[in-house]
């Protein structure tokens, strides 16, 4: 009899999860971050994404890595590349195994404002970024993680982490919090 009660309780919990449109929150603080923790490190997927972008942006210079919450509670990673002449752009969606160009265009003039990312200088991984966020009091659902580098006199790549409605900026070279 207890076997049937357990089966009924599991079925009720599962049907509640489907009715709510996702996984039921069982009180685990990290349950909302499972999509980020379960994935491999997106900063290592650049070569896979660059291979897909080569057709549209020769030279494939990385300018942005953008991770954001997708339409069905999954985390999507896109990589934006610019050609050597600065005129052609390609945005690639990548999961580390497959890569698909989701947008590409050519500008009439160079776009200013963003520098090329040198991934050898990026020392803060996504998992380390999440640890920094937790230490800063961020909790809840991760909305986005963006790695980019502004074209300034003292250029540094920076992570922008939005979680639980709050945002922090972290220097991707030193792991220092930017105010």
Question: How does this model look, in words?
Answer:
The chain has 179 residues and is of the alpha+beta class. The protein has one domain. 22% of the residues lie in helices and 30% in strands. The protein has an eight-stranded antiparallel sheet. The N and C termini lie far apart (60 Å). Mean pLDDT is 79; it is low at 1-39.
Which terms would index this structure?
8 strands; disordered N terminus; 179 residues; 22% helix; eight-stranded antiparallel β-sheet; alpha+beta
Distance between the termini: 60 Å
Strand order of the largest sheet: 4-3-2-1-5-6-7-8
Structural class: alpha+beta
Q: Measured on Cα atoms, how large is the radius of gyration?
A: 20 Å
What's the story with the biggest beta sheet?
8 strands, antiparallel
| Helix/strand order, N-terminal first | HHHEEEEHEEEE
The total tally of domains equals 1
β-sheet strand percentage = 25-35%
Q: Any idea what the shape is?
A: globular
Q: What's the helix and strand layout?
A:
Blueprint: H1 2-19, H2 34-37, H3 46-53, E1 61-69, E2 75-82, E3 88-94, E4 99-106, H4 126-135, E5 142-148, E6 158-163, E7 166-171, E8 177-178
Antiparallel strand pairs: 1-2, 1-5, 2-3, 3-4, 5-6, 6-7, 7-8
Short description:
The protein has 179 residues and is an alpha+beta fold. The chain has helices spanning 2-19, 34-37, 46-53, 126-135, and strands spanning 61-69, 75-82, 88-94, 99-106, 142-148, 158-163, 166-171, 177-178. The chain has one domain.
């Amino acid at each position: 009899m207890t076997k049937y009660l357990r089966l009924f309780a599991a079925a009720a919990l599962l049907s509640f999860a489907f009715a709510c449109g996702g996984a039921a929150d069982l009180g685990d603080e990290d349950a909302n971050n499972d999509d980020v923790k379960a994935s491999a490190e997106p900063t290592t997927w650049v070569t896979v994404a660059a291979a897909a972008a080569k057709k549209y942006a020769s030279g494939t210079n990385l300018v942005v890595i953008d991770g954001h919450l997708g339409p069905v509670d999954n985390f999507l990673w896109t990589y934006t590349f610019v050609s050597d002449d600065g005129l052609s752009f390609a945005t690639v969606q990548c999961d580390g195994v497959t890569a698909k160009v989701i947008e590409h265009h050519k500008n009439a003039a160079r776009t200013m404002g963003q520098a090329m990312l040198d991934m050898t200088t990026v020392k803060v991984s996504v998992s380390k970024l999440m640890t920094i966020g937790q230490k800063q009091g961020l909790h809840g659902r991760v909305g986005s993680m963006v790695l980019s580098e502004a074209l300034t006199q003292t250029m540094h790549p920076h992570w922008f982490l939005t979680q639980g409605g709050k945002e922090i900026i972290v220097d991707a070279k030193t792991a220092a919090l930017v105010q």
